[in-house]
Amino acid sequence: MLGTYYYHEILRKTVIGFGTLFNNIKIVHKNENGSDASVMKVPIAYGPIQKFLARIEQQPDLASKQTLTLPRLSFEMTGIQYDPSRKTGVVQTFKTSKTDGTPLKVYMPVPYNVTFELNIMSKLNEDSLQIIEQILPYFQPAINITVDLIQSIGEKKDIPIVLESINFQDNYSGGFDERRVLLHTLTFTAKTHLFGPIASSTEGLIKKVQVDYSMNSERRREMRYTVTPKALEDYNNDGSITPADDPLVEYGDNFGFNETTSFFQDYKDYSPSQGTDVEV
């Protein structure tokens, strides 16, 4: 129900997972003999590119010790959009449980696409090319990251990160004593899922199916066919789960159904309101 408080931190985890992809990129400057002169890990931060460009413009002095270090990476979430191509049933639910065995009812997740921009800022074209070549080969055009969407129920999903486009801009203007900024912008789409509230309830769980048959119009029933899931044998009346006798058998491995057939020659019928057979 709308207004019920819950917060699974799914969008936050998606942002963190995206940024983690690019937190170990390095550039190498070489000497004339081909040996490594310097190795630098490229810093990355969350924020709009305008903020970093404004800071560079406010500190144009190349000799200043407080200027913004280039190259560097920045990224930000730029949009969230519903993905109808991955739509599931609106009211469809699935059953799961907490780590303590409490049964839960969860609505199917809703597919959303989260768009990101990754900005590569550098003053040397060679630095930008080194960074780009360490990124592009992994996207063909997507790479999957595993995100623990809801830790309480162990719900993990592989989220595809799709590379959509690459743009280049040379923000060079002014004299030779001013800083030059080469800017490459990579646009990505993360195909994630958003979950609604999780209810600690077994409401809607089908525990038994019963059908009465009759080939004689004078009798209400002649045969009753009953089916119950074997998985319910693990559950106690209070909703907790009884451990399996075999330590190698985990919860949920007790698949299948118990089927029974009964025959009658009376004139009774089953009353759902009373939960028993009554005279008709």
Written overview of the protein:
- It is a single chain.
- The protein is mostly beta strands and 280 residues long.
- The chain is built from 3 helices and 16 strands.
- The strands form 5 sheets. Strands 3-4-7-10-9-8 form a 6-stranded mixed beta sheet.
- The two termini are 42 Å apart.
Structure, briefly:
With 280 residues, the chain is mainly beta. It has helices spanning 10-20, 49-58, 125-133; strands spanning 26-30, 36-41, 44-46, 72-82, 93-97, 103-107, 110-122, 142-150, 155-171, 181-194, 198-199, 209-213, 223-229, 257-263, 268-271, 276-279. Strands 3-4-7-10-9-8 form a 6-stranded mixed sheet. It has a 3-stranded antiparallel sheet with strand order 5-6-11, with no helix packed on it. A 3-stranded antiparallel sheet has the order 12-13-14, with no helix packed on it.
Mean of residue pLDDT values: 77
Low-confidence stretches: 243-253
Tell me the number of helical segments per DSSP (H or I, 4 or more residues long).
3
- The N- and C-terminal alpha carbons lie at a distance of 42 Å
> CATH homologous superfamily name of the largest domain?
Myoviridae tail sheath stabiliser
Assembly status:
single chain
Q: Please give the largest β-sheet.
A: 6 strands, mixed
How many domains, in number, for the residues?
2
Give the percentage of residues in beta strands.
Answer: 35-45%
Pattern of helices and strands: HEEEHEEEEHEEEEEEEEE
Secondary-structure content class: mainly beta
CATH class of the largest domain: Alpha Beta
Can you count the beta strands? 16
Shape: rod-shaped
Question: What's the CATH topology name of the largest domain?
Answer: STM4215-like
Q: Which strands sit side by side, in order, in the main sheet? A: 3-4-7-10-9-8
Helix content bin: 10-25%
